[in-house]
């Protein structure tokens, strides 16, 4: 089962994509503007994203850049656009897109390109898991494993842990985590810390080496492996 996110503001094209891809077994979500698309892309786990270039609220180039640089999300992205200048294609690829299709395009070709990108991504992300030191996290289901123990996560702590894993060992800012969970409308200030505390209870409390490190005034990160002191 391949799960796709379509970020496209043309309702006729979205309907055509649903009509062609769903019978092939794809599971589809869609967003009609860039801000909503970015929120869905960072809150859920997709096999690939179909991304229009010209979008309301947040354009496709900026969305792709944020997805790669701010959220460290490696999901394959195919840009869909009515524009065909070489400079646009080069810029799209430079911002982190994996492929580029100019409208109108063949739906059969789109299917083939999606499958090729998903196969490639599965080679990088073995069996749908991410690993950092002795922690392994399922990218699709809210569970993890550490030192032979199975860790059950909530949907929110799962999203936070995946975000930390993808960024490690870099810091994930507090604002990025809040946006990941609640979009543009985060709740009162203590809510995120409650989720981080819950995550630590599951991933760190029972183990000698805590992995989640607070960077005061900035955010959180997974700590780097310790280097033995020279003798």
Fold topology:
Blueprint: E1 3-7, H1 11-21, E2 27-31, H2 34-43, E3 48-52, H3 60-69, E4 77-81, H4 86-94, E5 99-102, H5 107-124, E6 129-132, E7 135-138, E8 143-146, E9 149-152, H6 155-167, E10 172-173, H7 174-182, H8 190-203, E11 212-215, E12 219-222
Parallel strand pairs: 1-2, 1-3, 3-4, 4-5
Antiparallel strand pairs: 6-7, 7-8, 8-9, 10-12, 11-12
Protein name: Response regulator transcription factor
Modified residues (4-aspartylphosphate): 52
DNA-binding region: 127-224
Secondary structure class reads: alpha/beta
Main sheet? 5 strands, parallel
Give the overall form.
Answer: globular
What is the level 1 CATH name of the largest domain? Alpha Beta
Tally of helical runs: 8
Q: Helical content, roughly?
A: 40-55%
**CATH homologous superfamily caption of the largest domain:** Response regulator
